Protein: FAD-binding oxidoreductase
Amino acid sequence: MPAPLTLVENSPELPASADVVVIGAGIVGVFTAYYLAKRGLKVVLLEKGRVGAEQSSRNWGWCRQQNRDARELPMATKSLELWDQFAAETGENTGFRRCGLFYLSNREEELAGWARWRDFARGVGVTTHMLDGAQASERGKATGRSWKGGVFSPTDGIADPANAAPAVARALMKLGGCLRQNCAARGIETEGGKLSAIVTEEGTIRTRIAILSGGAWASSFCRQLGVRFPQASIRSSILSVSAGDGELPDALHTAYVSVTRRGDGGHTLAISGRGRVDPTPQNMRFGAQFLPMFIRRWRALSLGGFEGFRSGHENLSRWRLDRPTPMERMRILDPAVDRGTIQLTYDRAVELLPAIASRRITASWAGYIDSTPDGVPGIGEIATIPGFVLAAGFSGHGFGIGPGAGHLIADIVTGAAPIVDAKPYHPDRFLQSAWGKVADF
Structure:
């Protein structure tokens, strides 16, 4: 595991039945299970590998409203409240704090875009401050250079990817929920056309409701059930540096490089949007649907290699429920790092923030960001399989909005008033083209 991650102990055994089974223990899965358990339901959380071991521990850790697409902004706002609330009601430490997020730019076009978003945000009660050149340069004095402007979102913050999902999993178990790691869900059983059980490598769990929060594996799992879920993965590479001398910002974004303080005092370094597209059978299958997304973002993407084939999460194979699946052969997606991107990221970071030069590189890693054609997650019950709820395709935004997504899914399952409008997320929209609908940020 190149990305730091706190380990969580398993519950002792797999129960024979449950009110709800959640498949996938990333940040969305653990929060979903937690909110369901809070409502008194008997919950089983299944994870083929370790809690939070894939993209939930490999991201920047940003929990932001700033520059969110209008469809995701309500969930982002609610999530910030829930991050705070979770810590207060459980005593578990996710590393969340509202340090504010800081953006700098010397490009008039970029600054104008942020100003337009600021004007939109005012209408929905979100506070963000545009900074003129003097203000931006003063707040960004660690860079040692002048800036045309920037933006500061004071109520946004960061959480610790190494600890967040494990903390929520521990809280789930305190409520009586069951966590089984290294236990893949292989498929489902139905009765009368409705979901009736989840088949795992350890046995079968009788249940009427299952949530698939399987991240980059979700489309392959859906295909086994005859459900078409368009999904594509981008391989993103980032690195971390140790704590050291010199004051660095908690969370800073520029077009060149972004830096985020980690829970250990070090920083994560990344280039926003940069990644590789590894050709896979699944990418080819859904290529036409992703054309609008590619046209919008092609400048930041480049062709990858055979990592997608090696990982096995985007093949078109069918698997049997009584045999090991690709998920059991690849417990944790841990793709090869793009060394060129790592070097470029580090070089840019040192140029932007000279204090980084004195710090030690502690780790580098890659992860698969699972995307939908419009860059907005798919959340909702699948009409052809009553009781089966999809929660995937978070497109690199899942960590920050994980609490809100988990709460919304719990609302859907229990029939409660939804914390936010669920319609923009329903998977039925993937039956239509994404032209003109790709997320702005």
